[in-house]
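Worked example

This section walks through a single chain of length 843. The input is the sequence exactly as stored; nothing has been trimmed or padded.
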Amino acid sequence: MTLAHLRAHGARVVASCLAVVIAVGFVVATLSLNATAGEAVRQGVGAQFTGSDVVVEPEDEFGEDRTLDTLRTTLADLPQVAALTADRTAYVALRLPGRSGSTYAQADGTGTAASLQWQRLSAGRLPATAGEVAVSDRVDVPLGTSIALTHDPVVPPGGDTGGTAEPPAPVTETVTVVGTVDLTGDPRAGVTPRVFGTDEAVTSWGGTSVRRVRIAAAGGQDALAAVTAATAGLPVTVSTGQDAAQRVADSYTGQAAGITTVLLAFAAIAVLVAGLVIANTFAVLLAQRTRELALLRCVGAERRQVRRSVLGEALAVGVLASAVGVLAGAGLARAVAAVAGRVESPIPLTDVVLPPSAVLVGLVLGTAVTVLAAAVPVRHATRVAPLAALRPVDVAPAGSPASRVRLVLGVLTAVPATAALVFFAVGGDLLPAVAAGAVSFLGFLLVAQRLVPAAVALAGRPFHRLGGVPARLAAGNSVRNPRRTAATATALVIGVTLTTAMVVGTASTRSSAGAGIDASYPTDVVVSAPTPLEATAVAAVEGTGGVAATTLVTELTLATTDGALSMDVTAVDPAQAAGVVRSQERTPVPRDGEVVVPGGTAQAAGLVEGQRITLAAADPATGTAGTGPSAAFTVRVAPRSSAPAAVTRADGARLDPDARPTGAWVRLADGSAEDQAAATDAVSEALAQVLPASEVTGIASVRNSLDQVLTTMLLVVTGLLAVAVVIALIGVGNTLALSVVERRQESGLLRALGLTRGQLRALLAWEALLVAGVAAVLGVALGTGYGLAGTASVLAREVPVRLDVPWLQVAGIVVVAAVAGVLASVLPARRAARTPPIAAIAD
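Given that input, the structure is written out below as tokens.
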């Protein structure tokens, strides 16, 4: 019978199949894009690690420990090690064609093992001799170009400088560009130009110490265990290449990495929406088959046989639709990746990953949700007595015991779940917040049967005179049959809630995460020099196009007069600095008589907020306070700052009158990432002409890259959540169709009493408009709350959450929802109007 029903009434299950296909496709696409984005970030930021089996790094990243220099020989002799390479880094100055002055660049060695070379080439080849280099796209020079490379001479350990006090003169050599390295996906690529040379060349340029050792394991060998044993007790850390890549990716992507986690949360939303839509769809199907099921009961079918038959149909629909949904999800993931690729996303979503777990989850979840969602309407359908199912059944009134039980259960569910949602959101716990939000929304749906009809009746009063008889009947119907009104409104509330949560959540996330990125990188450009900045250098910076404001900074070494603490301190003018930095959230500008101390330094020194300490200028070599003037300062702790301690320039001048500014902070004019990158290069060019030894660091490039990562991830989220809204609109059509089926005799009676076809269509349209309008307002209120809660659950641990409500878009949601409700009533109303009154009453 199950197979016969599927063959005979295949068209009836199309709506169910469509809902399951979209829901499963949404889940599979979410998991696929989450895996793809994560892999893309790892491949971009951690590219040098992903091809390694084992990575050995010093415990102190910035220390001078040379353990790895001697350890690499021991590791290379291990039988579990197939290949080994030592990473080296130096810093050089390049004189590029068409540019005056020098450009500072980071030089990295290509390694000695070809299997461990990680550089992706967009053109040319990697260098093979000391006179060849490959460059990053940031350098922007064609292949075959000869450039001058300047570096400090290498002084052997224990060597001298030729018997003179002056440091040896820099060495300049000519190298040829033979390749271009693609650093797409690495936010650091825009900060400093990169060049790549052979290990011998980088060593001669100053990269004498080994930064890390990367290892490829011999076939079938456990190199990780062998290396861990060989390095036991040494000041190094050992990890897998994937772990090292993930670690560096997490450290550089900041808030943008947290946005990736949001994709998993929307999978739960898709399951919830799909379950409700499938339940409504099966309710429509069973309402259309009420007489058929009753006839089966009359001729001897037992209740459990009917239940098994219908659940068998649900199982077949779930399996078939889930399989199609997996294919649709894979296609959707590729489509979203293609769109992201066309907008020049910094995350290259080129190689879409479809994990086996995503396929399994899609199949199992789609089938399970279909069967479970169908169980509720099946249970209601089989509980009706056979003879009772052959005649109309009165709907339980709003004040019935069952209705009161649902109301109490809804309140008891919604209130504590909403409190839990707020608690977890404020604490930044994403997954518990998603679970609490789903439970609170289910609680609201239980309350909706009493809340929505009352709101619809109140909203319908002004339309009594405007819409005539159809409007008055529509308002009356909403009160007379609250279950039907609530069921119709619920589907639209889901869609509007999701849409509003998407709009408000996206705007709030962008505002909050953007502020967090500004807090992490408050300065656009940092200029530093080994000698004081002369007036000509300052004028060169301030006169550069694209520079909005500058402030000079002085680097000091201060120590407490009791010798307990010595620290590097930056002295700035607070008024000027406030106009240069983009955020003081993590690194506040100091006030007179105040020293701002980063949290790490304060914790190590035992300093607390408000403590009074006395500071004096100190010898940078020894860190001990001199005999010069001292002053008392109030400690202001910046717990999340990674910048040096800071005092005002006036306080710095009191302690060290001879100190002069050796750096500057620069704020660029607001504009595109390309404009700010060009402005950074212009500052570097201008300084190179008057102060060649200066160094320019473009922090704005990192901030812009992270902002683009955030934009890409929000684009993915928006596209996926739009699919969930489509599912909800299917639910609107299903519930309206159910409403027409249930009111078939009522519609026939109205027609028999003189209601025209046009008035009947108007009646259903008015009812849809009233229900949709109320559902839209309720959905906007709920969606705003859920959107803010979602933003907080992702970002609360990183940055203060800002509520940003785009009111114009929210108003558009209300209008579109109302129009969608009316349009969804067109086909059911047309079907009802076409049915002859006698035929409808006879049913």
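What to look for: The chain has 26 helices and 20 strands.
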